[in-house]
Design brief:
homodimer; 2 domains; six-stranded parallel sheet; alpha/beta; about 325 residues; Rossmann fold; Quinone Oxidoreductase, Chain A, domain 1
Chain lengths: ~325, ~325
């Protein structure tokens, strides 16, 4: 029997999560029962929404001190108690921060390794990619020629939003927090421009790169980015509210923009939760894997080696120090 | 030649407009040229958006000190320089606070006095009515059984929103600022309930009257009403941002609700400007005049006698002391 390395939440984080909020433990791996699968985790996904689960504020449920940290992972089956799966099969599961999860076969998502590198099933071919695809195309309703502004522009959601917008004939402008990120956004992801909000005044940057206003704003952060975007909406703009990175690390609910901006632009503002858009997943996977093979979309991964380093990697993600999709290579 | 009584803006208001911000003057009435009409104003409409014009913040343009106060009026033609109009004809024009305007025939809206009392062409059969009709039906997308919450519920927009919502099978709940207003909303306009926000805690009132959440919120005020409504949205709610009474009297732009409320409810928030919905006017007039004749909609008018009293009436409107559509009977 294998030893199952696990990372538990030790205490509720105050502000930015730190390594001391977590605890590494080793437990005997469980055996799979009927309809269950014993798996080995290959890559673990770190995502900002997990901070909301620690606070008890996320709709997918709270993670309490003493419990296994949650999150999605891409795994291979070691032992199968379900006839649909064989050892070696790839799958994605919300199996959390552990090396040898036992999961219900009915709860997993099968992964076709032919669609792209398996790690991408946690990123641009997974939940972040579907978030971008459904959020932009269904809620953002981009038209050819539209200026599409996106925050957190080199993350897995933001970079996909920008690239899908361009594939659909739009003009993407990013907001990111370092010169490297902005260079990647323009040179690799092909954005028309990218504002480094840590160096340039955000209002000036948005006016410079979106002189005719913002037709679609895809918001992953809230806070000042949302405020400035709202001030610069074009008539009839669509705003997709998807993430709140600017406030995940706090227990406060800071105020948002004045409603006058929405009225002035006759804008439509929509709230995005990816779970509502599962129906688009087959079309998304078909489109996105093709775009990936055609080299029409690029992506960045920020890979940390070893489950024991997941807390540090999560800290880096929640302070914006990651460069691309945050992953932990577990085995 | 008649003496034309006019009310000018004397100075830019600070806070709530007061009578001293305006000046009554008498000028000789002009003669109509070709394509023009000399009219006599019967009713003048007082509307909250005029406060925004005094601040220079409204999209229909600023009113500067020394200029005639603006606003829509219902008038009768005295002398016509256009073959389409005869003396005695009724029309509506943005002719401002004066008794004998001369207007371009191309700029007026003809009024059919058979559709309802002529004063209603400034209220439930006019711009406020069209605002309610287009805002609710086109942007609010109410479904049968929906709970429709509306602020400023006894005003011409709010009372029409509530009554149209009910005609379409919805359940209307109002927010208003006095026991008399709330009694009218329930007993005359047939709302399921009405919260007097000056006596009952607004959060408790909304929870009490919208126990399953708010499906459509039609906002005429912003501020605290908007905040509380956002906290109580049902899944998939629609929010129509139409008016900002809570901030018209200030030069500040106070913050709005946190974007998390929109995400949590997967809500759609839209900005409403009535000028975008002229295409609906024929259908609106046909529906609304029928509903009026069938006694399916009730309305309130707050009529002040005499143009010289328009400044005081505007002060009452901007402090919420009016009871129904604010009108000045000019002649």
């Amino acid at each position: 029997m294998n030893d199952n390395t696990c990372v538990l939440l030790k205490r509720r984080s105050e502000g930015v999560p730190v390594a001391e909020d977590f605890e590494l433990v080793t437990r005997p791996a469980e055996q799979p029962g009927a309809g269950q699968l014993l798996c080995e985790t290959r890559y673990l996904s770190l995502d900002p929404y997990l901070r909301g689960r620690i606070s008890g504020r996320h709709l997918s449920g709270a993670i309490l001190p003493g419990e296994l940290m949650g999150g999605e992972a891409v795994c291979q089956v070691l032992e199968s108690g379900d006839e649909r799966f064989q050892p070696g099969d790839w799958l994605a599961a919300y199996s959390g921060w552990q090396r040898y999860p036992v999961v219900d076969a009915d709860s997993v998502r099968t992964v076709d390794p032919g669609l792209g590198p398996v790690s991408t099933t946690l990123g641009i071919l997974g939940m972040p990619g579907l978030t971008a695809y459904a959020g932009l195309l269904r809620l953002g309703e981009p038209k050819a020629g539209d200026t599409v502004l996106v925050s957190a522009a080199t993350g897995p959601v933001g970079s996909m939003v920008a690239q899908i917008a361009q594939i659909k004939g739009g003009r993407a402008v990013g907001i990111a927090g370092s010169p490297d990120k902005c260079a990647w956004a323009v040179e690799q992801a092909g954005m028309a421009g990218c504002i480094n909000y840590k160096e340039e005044d955000l209002r000036e940057g948005v006016k410079r790169l979106c002189p005719d206003g913002v037709d679609v704003y895809f918001d992953n952060v809230g806070g000042e980015c949302l405020q400035v975007a709202m001030e610069n909406l074009a008539l009839g703009a669509r705003v997709v509210l998807c993430g709140l990175m600017a406030q995940y690390n706090t227990d406060e609910m800071p105020p948002g923009p004045n409603p006058a901006w929405v009225i002035k632009a006759r804008a439509t503002v929509r709230g995005m939760v990816v779970y509502d858009h599962e129906d688009l997943r087959p079309q998304f996977l078909s489109d996105a894997s093709l775009w990936l093979k055609e080299d029409r979309i690029r992506y960045l991964e920020d890979v940390t080696e070893g489950l024991e380093n997941a807390p540090d990697a999560f800290h880096r993600l929640m302070t914006g120090q990651n460069f691309g999709k945050a992953l932990v290579k577990v085995s």
